[in-house]
Amino acid sequence: MLDNTDRRILDELANNSRVTMRELGTKIHMTGQATASRVAKLEDNGVIEGYTIKVNQAKLSCYIHAFITIFTKETNHQFYLSFIKTQMNYIINNYRISGEGCYMLECRFPSNDYLNDFLIDLNEHANYKISTVINKLDI
Question: Which residues, 6 or more positions from 6, have their beta carbon under 8 angstroms from its beta carbon?
Fold first, then answer.
């Protein structure tokens, strides 16, 4: 069970996983050594599974942000999944979902031309419904 200190550590690491243990300790009112011990315990218990970076896709010239609901044409999804593995430069996440559709793709494309080419190729393996992001709202 996590206490308030653990939750504060997780919040701070979610905002900046590169923070030093000393800086993190200052933010949560603990010593750097005590903070490092808490973080190690969270890692050992599997609460913290790893550290990642957040990439600004627009800075990489990927301006089109789309969510694509996938409706596979067959009960065997292997053809779709094999196709998706060849398209990883555009795909951020591929979620298996319940409800409407079988999968939800989160993708970034440099232009509408790249998106269109992707959809043409995708349509050989699955049907789809697409939604494009207009703006991300901070919550």
Answer: 38, 42, 47
Would you give the end-to-end CA distance of the chain in angstroms?
Answer: 26
Q: Which residues pair with 109 in a beta bridge?
A: 64
Taking the complete model, does pTM exceed 0.90, yes or no?
A: no
Q: Are 60 and 109 in contact (CB under 8 A)?
A: no
Cα–Cα nearest to 131, from 106, 94, 109:
106
Q: Are 103 and 70 in contact (CB under 8 A)?
A: yes
pLDDT digits (tens, 9 = 90+) for 96-132: 999 999 999 999 999 999 999 999 999 999 999 999 9
| Alpha-carbon distances, residue 65 vs 49, 57, 100 (angstroms) | 27, 9, 20
Helix (H, G, I), strand (E, B) or coil at 19: coil
